[in-house]
Amino acid sequence: MHHAGEYNRGWNYFEGLSAEEAAEREAAETRTADGYTDPKHYAWAGSGDGSRSRDEMRALEVLDLEPDATFEDVRAAWRRMAKANHPDVRPGDKDAAKRFQGVQAAYEVLKAAEDQRTWKPA
Question: Which residues 6+ apart lie within 8 Å of 57 measured at CB?
Answer without folding.
Answer: 47, 67
